[in-house]
Amino acid sequence: MSGNSDPLTPRAKLAVTAGKAAAAVSRAAGRGSGSVIGGRVALKLDPDLLARLATHLDVILVSATNGKTTTTRLIAEALGAAGPVVSNALGANMPAGITSALSGGSDAKYAVIEVDEKYLSGIARDTDPKCIALLNLSRDQLDRAAETRMMAEHWREGLAGSKAVVIANADDPLVVWAASSSPNVVWVAAGQMWKDDAWSCPSCGGVMQRPGDDWYCGECGFRRPTPSWALSGDHVLDPHGSAWPIHLQLPGRANKANAASSAAVAAVFGVPPQVALERMYQVQAVAGRYDVVQFMQRELRLLLAKNPAGWLETFSLIDPPPTPVILSVNARGADGTDTSWLWDVDYTQLTGHPIFVLGDRKLDLAVRLEVANQQFQVCENLDQAVQLAPPGRIEVVANYTAFQDLRRRVGN
Question: Which of 208, 219, 290, 307 is least surrounded by Cβ atoms within 10 Å, i.e. has the fewest?
Fold first, then answer.
């Protein structure tokens, strides 16, 4: 329901007010949006605040290794056709950031919430979601995240018996294993470009057979479920077999897959695919991702890629050679400090591109590119890389904190 009745106790109201004040102070000090510190202050005053804030909302949770921020934005846009939406649009996806986002949703009907993979079970327990979208699982932040099979098991245990409608990617065996404990699953054939984390069966450990787009375990019989929604080229196929065109301003196959999953979520709440997909066209960029900016009289497209699966998808959508490419990698807390994942990325896909390398871990990246026989130059900063780059639009690919550094430099 989206009621006028106030679910908040006096203590909860105090917590919300204090959180908003802390966030405002953080913003005034130039320390970012303030959503995380605001949420932490609010939860310290009322540990049950997240559950209280969610009581009047139809909650949709979105979790994945890659694509969750974009998919959250697409779902929020689609559900706007059915009522007011509150969302953590800037990607603060742990309990404090989510609490901060919901604090601003007193008049909303829907809450579309991106959730970090490790927190999905707990957030689901607190918010009693109507729908949960699970997109993919792959290796990420090896120094702090669980191995993918363990993460799938964690999801599986947390979703067991959930009343939520689970929208899950039928093409990712780890996601299928995780979602299969839930009694109400809608399968979407969204595709899986990165397969290196899904060659062993999550059910029994046997070797997965992968003929074409299908997959199954020859030892225990665990297999790809029959999807009711599917991405087919530039169209979404709905459960009735109707094909709806996808028109996005966001580039790449991965975003079409995100749109297919988003259309399936919107349908749970009565928004028809045609309406949902038309509304998704409004999204031009997501928290700076895919933005095209002017810098030093050059055109730069900003692309975020945080792990091997994300880099693979990103390489598939950049302009062809000889388009110059800037790569920037950091290894700060938010990135994960282990850069061994660089060796899982196929950098031969950049052959023919002039490559410029920067970031805190530019030398790690340089060694990896050297081994991949790529031509590159190591640069001290973005300004130098742009000066050295040959003419034409420049593709800039960066991991999380490197991406934020670049956005600040270009004034985005």
Answer: 219
